[in-house]
């Protein structure tokens, strides 16, 4: 085994890893499952010498490749654009998203609605998203306020934003274990906990006090005004474009 082989293996692993992340984040995941079933049936038909079925599946596969390129044209285009910009993942949030998010947070703080909102950056938050309900909708102030309205099934737990979309709500985040912060309530410890295990920016609105704080890389900010929050989020937005 030479250094070339090691580099080759590393390169292939990197490509496979990014392909997996790309597939896991888009609607291509179901397609991959479908393709695996298709290939298994084709393989079986071939092994069992079901000539007609194998012929049909073989020819349909050629057509299918072109059909896939057409159907997944938006994803492929997005992927190639990001590859060109040197960023394989969309991270952060866009300008309109920041505007809607800050509006929602400001209103929720004024109304004393407790809220916990994580903005995914480079660390994938899929494992926490699956603990809640899939939302997959464009972020809007009205949507966020609706999610955190007391008495609704999804208001408990955290909401996850990926780019300009709300991906999931009612999610369970890991609680920070820090002894010196035991005095904090669980909503704030969950915000901090998630920021300790990821690079997410986690916004927390206190139901008790109506304050706005942000947890980032294991640090919980002091109370922020809505415009201070906007400033921080705009920095994140600039970093991601
Ligand atoms: N692990 C967790 N992941 C996500 N959300 C959580 C988690 N633990 C608690 N929460 C949320 O926090 C709420 C309880 O907040 P609690 O009052 O204990 O915390 P707090 O930090 O004092 O917040 P507040 O200032 O809003 O009262 C729960 O109803 C739930 O919505």
TrEMBL record:
UniProt xrefs under InterPro entries: C-di-AMP_synthase (IPR014046), CdaA (IPR034701), CdaA_N (IPR045585), DisA (IPR050338), DNA_integrity_DisA_N_sf (IPR036888), DNA_integrity_scan_DisA_N (IPR003390)
Keywords linked to the UniProt accession: ATP-binding, Cell inner membrane, Cell membrane, Membrane, Nucleotide-binding, Nucleotidyltransferase, Transferase, Transmembrane, Transmembrane helix
Catalytic EC class: transferase
Occurrences of domain DAC (ranges): 73-226
Entry-linked Gene3D superfamilies: DNA integrity scanning protein, DisA, N-terminal domain (3.40.1700.10)
Signal peptide (UniProt feature, chain positions): none
One function term, GO molecular function aspect: diadenylate cyclase activity
Keyword Transcription recorded: no
Entry EC number(s): 2.7.7.85
Entry-linked SUPFAM superfamilies: YojJ-like
Family: Belongs to the adenylate cyclase family. DacA/CdaA subfamily.
Protein function: Catalyzes the condensation of 2 ATP molecules into cyclic di-AMP (c-di-AMP), a second messenger used to regulate differing processes in different bacteria.
Subunit structure: Probably a homodimer.
Protein name per Swiss-Prot or TrEMBL: Diadenylate cyclase
Organism listed in the record: Marinithermus hydrothermalis (strain DSM 14884 / JCM 11576 / T1)
């Amino acid at each position: 085994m030479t250094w070339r082989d090691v580099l080759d293996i590393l390169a292939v692993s990197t490509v496979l890893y990014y392909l997996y992340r790309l597939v896991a984040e888009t609607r291509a995941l179901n397609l991959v499952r479908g393709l695996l079933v298709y290939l298994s049936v084709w393989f079986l038909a071939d092994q069992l010498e079901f000539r007609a079925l194998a012929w049909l599946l073989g020819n349909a596969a050629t057509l299918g490749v072109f059909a896939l390129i057409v159907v997944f044209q938006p994803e492929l285009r997005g992927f190639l654009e990001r590859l060109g910009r040197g960023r394989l993942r969309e991270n952060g949030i866009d300008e309109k998203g920041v505007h809607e998010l800050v509006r929602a947070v400001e209103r929720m703080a004024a109304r004393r609605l407790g809220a916990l909102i994580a903005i995914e950056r480079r660390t994938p938050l899929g494992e926490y998203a699956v603990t809640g309900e899939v939302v997959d909708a464009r972020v809007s102030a009205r949507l966020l306020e609706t999610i955190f309205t007391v008495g609704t099934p999804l208001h408990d737990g955290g909401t996850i934003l990926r780019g300009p979309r709300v991906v999931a709500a009612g999610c369970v985040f890991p609680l920070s274990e820090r002894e010196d912060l035991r005095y904090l309530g669980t909503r704030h410890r969950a915000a901090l906990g998630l920021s300790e295990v990821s690079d997410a920016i986690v916004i927390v609105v206190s139901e008790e006090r109506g304050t706005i704080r942000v947890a980032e890389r294991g640090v919980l900010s002091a109370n922020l005004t809505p415009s201070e929050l906007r400033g921080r989020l705009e920095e994140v937005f600039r970093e991601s474009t």
